[in-house]
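Field notebook, page 391. I keep forgetting to write these up properly, so this time I am using the form the group agreed on. The chain and the ligand, adenosine-5'-triphosphate, are recorded exactly as supplied. Prediction of the bound pose follows.
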Amino acid sequence: MKALLITRDSALHAEIASQGAARVPPLTLVATRTGMRDALDRLVPDAPALVIVDAHDFEPSDADMLERLAKHYPEANFMLLTREHQQDLLIRAMRAGVREVLQLPLNHRAFHEAIDRIAASAGVTSMREGKVLAFISCKGGSGATFISTNFGYGLATLAEKKVLLIDLHGQFGDATLYVSDQRPAMTLSDVCSQIARIDGPFLESCLVHVTGGFGILAAADDPGHKVELKAEHMDAILRVARKHYDYILLDVGRQIDAISLRALDSADAIYPVLQLGLPDIRDGRRLLDIFRSLGYPLDNTRLIVNRYEKGGKLRLQDLRSALGADILHTMPNDYLAVTDSVNQGVPVLRLSRNAPVSRSLAELVESITAHRLPENKGLFDRLFGRGDGDQ
Ligand SMILES: Nc1ncnc2c1ncn2[C@@H]1O[C@H](COP(=O)(O)OP(=O)(O)OP(=O)(O)O)[C@@H](O)[C@H]1O
Ligand SMILES: [Mg+2]
């Protein structure tokens, strides 16, 4: 959203510029004017969607000018930043059609909430209705972290979705390392310890960014358990995340605790990841029994069979009947491509885009997004159409 800011306070200008830039989509200051007179003298040719007016030292004549400026930008929303006890001004502002009045010093949360309201009414909202998809490994090493991280990358790059992955492994979480070489500056425990600050820009600022559209919230790295992770924290994070991301992927790991249970409760779909072998099937059955006892509808639970090789003794049909759940997808065993990717911390779709496992990830992206976005037909062209690949 494009905004005009009227202030002579350079610190306030910098504050609003940085808060605006952190929003998704960003709030861009297209012009700045030092006062109402200046704003009227130098109208912005491309009318802004939002006019933010610092009214802390307003004179009565400024209120007149505010009314005139509002007539010049009839489509714009006005936001007034005031000190306490400027009652007269508030009445004039209401008459001029000012939509939001905030007090200085600026409270960031109130600022973002006001922008959200304006953006929603202007129809430029980024408010999404994100889907929460949980990946959980039935047995240690089944491949849930590899698949969830690389699938997240695929969703963001092939289907151009905005994706957040939350690593719920606790202390031993390593999801960021599968697709990035950045060290996380913030983790899930940091977010929970500052839960009162949670909003879209704050959450976004806590992520390791793999691409512009794909960020990972690193696992809670808090061996001393200084921060108590509560189920309510998960509620707050997911509530905000659903508004700001198209997909929220959960790498659940194997331990089921209060926070991962709450995450599973809110998931739109649960994907247990397992390999086609008896030990995995046994553990998978236990896991699904837990889900049944918790009352999760099994039609939300669909299996991903990893490292699948055709022609083995066990068939997919055996797995389906042993577990009583449908199979969403099979992922081929692709030792070289996966090992290279995991060892280098580079998404396999970037490193070896023609590898069988990359094709399979692209299919998974298509099958999960297709019914929501039928225009995504060109995924394969986008992935494989150009050149001979870079393997
Ligand atoms: N499709 C595949 N083909 C070949 N190797 C794979 C495949 N998927 C995963 N792997 C290998 O299996 C290893 C374990 O995978 P991953 O760490 O994703 O499992 P996990 O289910 O997250 O395990 P944990 O229970 O420890 O969290 C990876 O290091 C990777 O090298
Ligand atoms: Mg894992």
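OBSERVATIONS:
- The chain has two domains: 2-122, 131-376.
- Residues 193 and 227 are 6 Å apart (CA to CA).
FOLLOW-UP: compare against the apo run.
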